[in-house]
């Protein structure tokens, strides 16, 4: 049983009491009860399906209620959903109260703002584009109340500091709720039109389809992340003395890509490339990766096959895109002295030039068994010294600018076992001290 702190119980009880106060004028209102019942049932069914299949919340019906009903009546719409939706964690009562009180307060505030700005008349008269202004203000009020309540709960239940409790809550919710608000407004306008409620329900069909596509995208993305994590963990197990190196190279690659102004899709691709750049080490004999002392020329040639091994391993993973080229060519050098193919200058793919700089930077700023970590400033100076021969100067400059602006705060640190590993020597002949 997952305990709910006493402060959180009190907070939820206070929100529930406030929601009840919002319902007090209800008996005096001329509320179309059939419309309230239909919207409440529709919202309950939508929430049940969306939570069960997609793991999210579905607001169009709730916001349609804010545009169609008086505020106290609109606050009743989410209550049946809170009663019928399953509760995964115990105790169930405070969680059901929260599921009922939070949307009730939010939709009450949205309806109050909508009616105060004349939104009801605009909806009844199908008065576009004037109906958009009160609807937009209502959506903003809805998001504000949700964010305020969520932030307060984070403070009392999770102990999040006040300065961080509300950070990002409103900005993250505005865009998706605005889309739901537009669908809710379309429902309300069609509901009040000669076509009636049946036409309004048709608005939900494309919303459900888009929600399903969105959920499928996130499931596919989660599968991608799981694939990458499995590959990286396998490399870390095989070559433990560089544990955490892959994630840090991915982080540095992202910093370079953003500094170069790449779009989000390419930034994500560069992150994959950085994380998986050494996946080919899975094809290298473990005894060579863990050898105590310098490698023979033959052993060095075997080690230098790992980019080709890595490319073969990920060649069939379509979502990696150009990251596969970075895995193959991240040990190439601008002057043609790199491997596996000795490419020169712009023959080396751009993504590989990014990862090469990120790889060398992390190698120099991480503690290895054969040397201590270098300061960031020293590592950047070394990269700048080798720019134009080993590294692309544009990538080096981008990393230096990003470090000046953001600093270097790696999310993953070197494993302590790496520092206790047997003494090994750098073998790739890199002037920057890059790993094998």
TrEMBL record:
Alphabetized UniProt keyword annotations: Membrane, Transmembrane, Transmembrane helix
InterPro entries: Cyclic_di-GMP/3'3'-cGAMP_PDE (IPR052020), HD/PDEase_dom (IPR003607), HD_domain (IPR006674), HD_GYP_dom (IPR037522), HDIG_dom (IPR006675)
Signal peptide from the UniProt entry: none
Positions of the HD domain: 242-364
Transmembrane stretches, start-end: 61-85, 129-149, 169-191, 197-215
Keyword Electron transport: no
Region listing for Disordered, in residue ranges: 414-436
Protein name: Metal-dependent phosphohydrolase
Source species: Streptomyces filipinensis
Lineage: Bacteria, Bacillati, Actinomycetota, Actinomycetes, Kitasatosporales
